[in-house]
Every structure is written in C-alpha cells, then in structure tokens.
Design goal:
About 10% of the residues lie in helices and about 55% in strands.
C-alpha cells in the first residue's frame, strides 16, 4: 500500500521582531482515523534556514505525492526526501540533538515531538539568540479526508533568550478547552479552521538575568473565548485567500513589579464580540513581488474589523510618579480596501471615554463622547484621468469634565456644553508618481514640481462645528488650473466659491472679554476682522461668501479683496 504524504516546509528568517518566522505543515492522506496518541516509528526532517523570504528561497516548499513515490521507488519518507532541496534526511538517526524536530510516522498518523525553533544571532545583529521549545503535535486524518492537528496542551512552551553572558527564560502554559484544528481542501491551497471554547496562554515560570535582584514579580495571560478562525482559498493554488476571525471575548492581563527599578504596573485589556474579515485576490497567483504590478493586474485587499465593548485600563508606578487611566468604547468598526483605484480607510466608534490621572497633573483628565469617526481616501497609482481623494472626521456630544474645564474657565463664564464637529473634504487629483514606488528625491526641494500630485478640484462637502455656544457651517468647491502658476505666484489658479454661516460669535467675544481671556481692544479688533469677510444676516449671525473668479480676483460678499 502506497501512503500519500504532502509535506510543506516553510522556514524564513527575518530581521526585527520576531527574529524568525516558522510555519510547519504536514498533510498526510489518507490516514486511518485514530483518537489515541501513539508512539510511532521515528524519522527526521530538518528544514534549512535562510534570510530570504520563503516565497523567494529555492527549496523552501517541498511536495511529495504518491506519483513521486512510485516513480522513485521510495517506500518511506526517508527515501522520498533524500534528494529534496531544503530537506535533509539522515540515514542513521540517533537523536543526538533533542532540539531538532523529528517525526514519528505510520499508517495512523504522524507525531512531531521534541519540536523546537532556534535562531542563532550573528555578531552583526542586536537580537539575542532565541530557543523556543514547542508542543508535541499529532496529525491524524478524519473520516471525511480532512486532517486534524492535535497539540499536546498538557505540555509547556519554553522560551530561552541569550544575549552575551545574560540568560533569561519564560515558561508558558497553554490554555485550551474543546479546541479543534482542522485542515482540508486542496494540497496547494489548504483550508484551515480552528474552533475553541477557550484558547490562550499563561506565564507560569520565568528566570531573569543575574543583574536583577531576584524578587521581581510578573503575571501575564491572554485568553480567547468562543473563538472561530477560518482561512480558505479560491482554487487549487493559494489564490484569493479569505479569512475570518470571531471571538466572544479577548482578555489580556499583565501585572509586574520590579523593585530594583522602583517600577510596577497593571494592564487589563478586554474586547467583546470581535469579528475580523479579510479577503485578497491575485496575491499568490501573480508572481510579481512589486505592489504596483500586483495592483495593475487586479490585486485587491479588503478588510473589516468590529468589536462590541472594548476597554484598556492601566496603573503604573515609577520614581517619576503614578499614572492611572482608562480608554473605552462601544460598537467600534474599521473598514479598509486597497485596489488600483486607491486606499480607503474608515473607522467609527460609539460611547467613547478617556480618563487619565497622574500625580504630576493637578486635575484628572475626563473626556467622553457619544460618537466618533475618521477616515480617508487616497489614490495609489498614477492614471490618465483624475482620481478621487477625501478626508473625513467627526465627533458628537464631546464632553469635558467640569474639573478639567475649570482650568480653562475658573469663573465658569464660558459655556461648557457638548462639542460637535463634522468635516467632509473631497476632491480630484492626478498622481505624477506611483505612491507604491516612493522615492525620497521626489519630495526634496521647495518647488511645486517636487510634489508628485496635481490637484484638479477641492470640495468642502460638509463643515459643521459647534462649541461654547457658537456654530460654524460651510460648503463649496473650487477647481484648480494647474497650467496657470503665475496668477497666484507659483500656485494653481482657483475658480469657485465657499459659503459660511457663523452664529453666536459676538456673544462669545463678550464672554472672553468678561472672563479676562482677552481685553476690549483685542475683542474690537476681532469684530473688525470679521466684518471684512462677513455680513450680518440675523441675530448674532454672520454670513460670508468667498469667491475666486476666472480673472484671479478674490471677493468676499462681492467686495474685492485681491
């Protein structure tokens, strides 16, 4: 009987954090269904390591099928992988190096035991040597042909850090309840699914370098409840990946005390009802590593993130003082998209609050708001026709606690009411260079030709501000003549108009004078300045229309300013 093994080895080494990335995936089909962990006949598979990315390193992906086995006459994995680039199969394995992973193989499954990751830092790197002892893994085929991965959660994960003569280690205890990991689909494009009632990690033990006194205290854990993770591909190759992540809650806890540094801290981070969805197209099927080429050939990436209730609380103490605070919101969501038409980002949250208290601050910070949003639209690739851009920002019912407001207005002369703001700005522009091919020299110098952008039009879609009893509303648009850089001394000539309505400003000026913020002469100067651009249209209401005509004139309410 010929048993079919698909072994994919990815072993990449990158600079920065984390110092290396390893993914190790073995898909055996078909296996007999097995539920109990068994000791199987061992073989050894050793992956090579390279500083190149996995996609560009020869021999990083190895696939052995039953056809390959029959053609080569191999009857075991040792023989099958004997001549595979990036994979070494010793003829005589004695288990001399316990840090090297080895496989047990048979008709019922594969056991990966003594599995460890090792990064040997070079003299030129500032990263310490790292050794990570991982969990044993058993891989079994299910009755439907899919493959189940079963880590041994009764084991521990040990992380060892070496930097010169200094040594530190951390022992992590996995947390799991009703966790299943299933791989299905095609060999070149496996579907991956994780379901878990509870999944997480807890710091169990630690050892710090000898320079510490040894009475430090650390607690850390991360727990995910009701988690579902899915990733799937569109076809037989890793094309058009789709992924989703759901969790009933995510709880992060960190508590530490370092007496030698007189530092202590507590962090609690909680999220509820999390949903993350992403989708990409033509990412792998297109062999180009250039983002410009990918976008031009139809690559796109879409993503969304939402959470019900989210909060982070912290409490720090140091020789400089104490700091406590809380940041929270409800019903947050973020959406993004990247296509050849540009980059779009939008974020929204409700019932936000920010509290901050410090021993070096005279008054605590206490701010809340009902709703908040921000976003932008930016073109990415240069095109013949003008492209859209935009900027969006808004807050509603922003309230500043009276104690904090009292620092600004101790006599309570100004109105401490809700602050509201809504700004929507859009336009069209031509890119002269692809933003995916950033070149610093493009932005050097002060001439207008150094900016790879020609703005054709600016539209003030919405301006609505209200605070301290005043309000400002506005809208309008202008087109820009990029061929005329003379009329406005090197800037494109604008043609169009903006209209504004300002209410309550005279009452505000009176309050500022009475509260002592400004003197009467400054208040009179402010009123005279406003009269140059605005005309009275109601009780404490001013209106203004700013025009840019084709002759290069600027007019305010029909009166020429330029």
């Amino acid at each position: 009987m010929i048993i079919r093994y698909f072994v994919l080895l990815h072993f990449g080494l990158f600079r920065g954090t984390p110092p290396f990335i390893l993914s190790f995936l073995i898909l055996p089909t078909p296996f007999l269904l097995g539920q109990n962990r068994e000791e199987l006949e061992p073989i050894t598979i050793i992956a090579t390591r390279s500083e190149k990315t996995t996609s560009s390193t020869a021999g990083m992906d190895s696939v052995i099928t039953d056809e390959d086995l029959m053609r080569s006459g191999a009857v075991s994995l040792e023989e099958a992988f004997k001549y595979e680039r990036g994979v070494s199969i010793p003829f005589d394995f004695t288990g001399a190096d316990p840090l090297v992973p080895y496989l047990g193989s048979g008709e019922k499954g594969i056991n990966i035991t003594d599995f460890a990751l090792i990064n040997k830092a070079t003299a030129t790197r500032e990263v310490a040597n790292v050794e990570i002892d991982l969990l044993d893994i058993q891989i079994l085929e299910r009755s439907d042909g899919s493959v189940e991965i079963r880590p041994d959660y009764d084991q521990e994960i040990t992380i060892k850090l070496y930097e010169g003569r200094e040594f530190s280690s951390f022992v992590l205890q996995p947390l799991s309840d009703n966790t299943t990991m299933i791989i299905s689909g095609e060999v070149g494009a496996p579907d991956f699914q994780i379901n878990s009632s509870l999944f997480g990690m807890k710091l169990k033990e630690y050892e710090l370098p000898s320079r510490y006194e040894g009475n430090e205290f650390f607690e850390a854990s991360i727990i995910l409840n009701a988690m579902v993770l899915n990733q799937a591909f569109a076809g037989k190759i890793q094309d058009s990946p789709k992924s989703s992540f759901q969790a009933g809650s995510i709880n992060l806890f960190l508590n530490f005390d370092v007496p030698a540094e007189q530092m202590s801290g507590l962090i609690k981070y909680n999220l509820e009802d999390i949903l993350v969805i992403s989708r990409q197209d033509n990412l792998v099927s297109n062999t180009s590593e250039n983002l410009t080429n990918l976008l031009e050939t139809g690559f796109y990436a879409l993503g969304s993130y939402s959470v019900g209730v989210g909060s982070i609380e912290f409490d720090f103490s140091s020789p400089d003082g104490n700091l406590t605070g809380k940041l929270a919101s409800e019903n947050s969501n973020v959406s993004t998209s990247l296509t050849k038409n540009g980059l779009l980002f939008d974020a929204y949250f409700a019932n936000g609050l920010f509290k901050l208290n410090s021993s070096v601050m005279p008054i605590p910070v206490d701010i809340s708001l009902k709703n908040g949003n921000y976003g932008f639209t930016v073109p990415i690739l240069k095109q013949r026709e003008p492209q859209n851009f935009g900027l969006r920002f808004g807050v509603s019912d922003l309230l500043i606690a009276q104690d904090l407001w009292g620092l600004l207005d101790p006599n309570n002369n100004l109105k401490n009411g809700p602050i509201n703001a809504k700004i929507a700005l859009s336009g069209t522009a031509k890119l002269l260079e692809n933003l995916t091919e950033f070149r610093p020299e493009i932005y050097e110098g002060n001439s207008s030709n150094s900016i790879p952008l020609e703005v054709d039009g600016i539209f003030l879609d919405k301006l609505d501000l209200s605070l301290m009893g005043t309000s400002l509303q506005g809208e309008g648009s202008v087109t820009l003549d990029n061929e005329d850089l003379i009329t406005f001394d090197g800037f494109p000539k604008p043609v169009g108009s903006f209209e504004f309505v300002l209410t309550g400003v005279n009452a505000l000026v009176d309050k500022l004078i009475n509260s002592g913020f400004i003197d009467s002469d400054t208040g009179m100067g402010a009123r005279m300045m406003l009269s140059m651009f605005a005309i009275p249209t109601g009780e404490d209401e001013l209106s203004s229309k700013i025009e840019f005509n084709s002759l290069g004139h600027i007019l305010a309410n029909g009166q020429r300013l330029r």
